[in-house]
Amino acid sequence: MFSIVLGTNNKKKGAELTELLAPFNIEVRILADFENKIDVVEDGTTFLENARKKASEQARFLKAWVIGEDSGLSVDILGGAPGVYSARYAVLSEKSEKSEKISEKFSEQLNASDEDNNRLLLEKLGNTPLEKRTAHYTCAAALADPNGNIQKEYEQYCRGKIRFEPAGTGGFGYDPLFEITEYHRTFGELTLAVKQTISHRARTMRLLIPTIIRIASENS
Question: Domain coordinates of the chain in residue numbers?
Answer without folding.
Answer: 2-218
